[in-house]
Amino acid sequence: MKPLVKILYIDDEEINLELFRWTFKNQFNVLTAISAKEGLAVLEAHDVPVVVTDLKMPEMDGLQLIEIIKRKSPEKICIMLTGFIDLAAKAKSNIVFNVLAKPWKKNELQKAIQTGIEAYQKEIN
Amino acid sequence: MVHPSPTIIGLIICVGLEFLFFLIHMTYWIKRSMDKTHLFLSIWFFTAAVFSISRLMQFFSINPMDGVFFGKTSALCHYTILFFGMKFVYTYTNKEPRLAEKFIFYGMMGVSILLILTSEIYITDQPALRQTVFGEKFYGALGGKYFLPIGLFLPFAFVFLFFKLLLAKNVYDKSLLVVIGFGCSALFSFIDIIIIRFGFNIIRFYDYAYLPLGIGYTFAMINHYSEMYNQMELLVEKRTDQLLKANVSLKDEIQIRIDAEKNALLNLEKFESIYNGVNEAVFVLTKEGVIVDVNDKMLQMFKCPSKEIARNLSIADISLNVTPYTLVEASIYIGKAMRGESQVFEWQSKDLAGKIFWSEIYLSTAIIGSVKYVISTIRDITSRKETELELANYRLTLEEKVKQRTYELDNSIHEKIFLNEELLKVNKEIEKQRNELLAALENLKVAQAKIVESEKMAALGILVAGIAHEINNPLNFISGSVTNVQTLVDELHELVNSGSPGKLSERQSEFDIQFQDLKKFISYIELGTNRITQIVNSLRLFSRSDNEEKVEASVQELIEAVIIMLDHQLKNRITITKDFGDIPKIFCYPGKLSQVFLNLLSNSIHAIDNEGSISIFTRLTNNNNRLECTFKDTGHGIPDEIKDRIFEPFFTTKEVGKGTGLGLSIVFGIIEQHNGTIKVVSSKGEGTEVILDIPII
Q1: pTM of the entire structure?
Q2: Long-range contacts of residues B171-174, Cβ cutoff 8 Å, at least 24 apart
């Protein structure tokens, strides 16, 4: 069996992290972080091709986090979740791979992640 | 004739002493005191001296007089001595002789002197003559037989005076010698009478009769003077003392004077500075109109180089000197002023350069050093006069113009009728415009209502954004959980259908895990539902913004709800501190009040550029009758220049389209509806503090 691809999900609500982990337990190797800062630490320790992050978070928001990630490793795929289809997020679409609405739908999100993984692998090769 | 030399020597000593005392008393009398006692004593001693000399002359047989004359002279001497002795005693004892005493003394003396002058009395030492003296001749002529009682009066009188002195108060101890002197005189003259009368030719006592008396007097006088001297000394001491005291008080007085003088000088300086500082020329004039003094301003006004020159000026020199501005009119004014009627009049003055100018003169009087002067203060009123003239000119031109206008108007009266019609037309036009304006006003009102509405919509926008974000997470809980629950249910369904019941129990542990997960997701769904309910409840507060009635509501709850709505705006950068204290519910329009809190808090949020904090305090004031809510932020504050305008409708610092400028005016309106007040404390860069004060009921 092919090993599951590592993805990182960042959200400030523990329940959301829990739900995400459970939902995609069979599809991806899900790593989670409760804040942007923790997320960055996880990225230091693991080779994660796709990052999914919530937009609104205290201290550092999703967009700021994506900027930092992309500056360090431009090949990484970043997907953002938000309550609105935010204008700010759209403007930055060159660094954000996809913007999805929250609450998320399993199928949509899985598809987006999958596309992201493929895009990443294409980029690597 | 030969006499025992002791008598002659005694007499010579007598004469010398008597003259000496005469001179002493005379000198005292004239130079020192004019005391009568000295006069009397000087006469006494003079007479005594004369008597002694005449006696001495007898001894040396150079007596030019016959025995009778000598006798009379010596008798007169005796009585003179008696008289002045009496005078002395009464004066000395400071007593008036009683009437009886006067009568006896003056009577007896008068009679005695008359007898002496008319009778032939011999006073002789020659035994041959003695017979005659005390024989026929003694009784010869008038009253010879009365000689004895009259002659005896002399010694008795002396005895009387002796006792008078002796018994007089304050005399005995102090003037013992005088008393002794009188006693001696009395005794001697008494003895003498006896000798003469009875012819005992012993030593002639009476030759010395007055010496002891005189010496006694003299000592008495010395005593008297020493007494007087003592008294004088006492007096001098007393005086010295008084003078010393006077000196001290004089010194004090001098100090007071010096102080007073300083004061006076100060006052003088004050006066001088006022006198010279006033903006009016001041003249001090005599009643004749002579200039006595002037102040500095006068020199300036009249271009006079010095006060000296000013004093030598005549009123004519500084006036136009053409009727009615001459010395004559001036004198009339001065005269009136001198009679106490102060004068104010206008005058054409002339300065020393010859320039004529209008002045206003005020005359009054003042008494300086008991002399009455006229004080004349002069004000330059040239500019006023010019204005008056101008006004007069204006008036003339105006009158001209009015006349012209009246004429024109008269001419155009028919034009007026025409004009009236025109006016009516214009009026109609105005009426029309007015209606249009009213309509415009109505439109404006509608527009305003719309804008107010749009402000509400803006608030709603904030609300919706807040709610949307707040609701996202709980919605995610639900939706995520639901997805997973579906998955689990599908899996369970598969498990149940695929296996036998026996197998089912073998896989109990697998079921357990799945049921645990199911429970977990259901609890997440519950949690999400609860959160959404909470948010929707807070939204409900706004739902009744309009037409709501006053109800009891908790300000704390309202503020908390608003904070929830704004939460997404603050999360990253703004911390909120709350201290609600112990406050009761208040009677209010909760929806409107929520809008107030929402507007205030969003203003604060907008005022904080990066990171900052907002503090909210509530407390009871005014005996728990009012509620005070304070919203304090660390934002950029309100610049002073716009502070007065923040409550103006449509006033905004935001870009066009970003704010309606109604936020605070709505706040103001709502707080007024609650009979509350709003206070804003802020300065640029210092943050803003908004204090609401609302009655509880």
Answers
A1: 0.39
A2: B171/B92, B171/B93, B174/B220, B174/B223, B174/B224, B174/B227
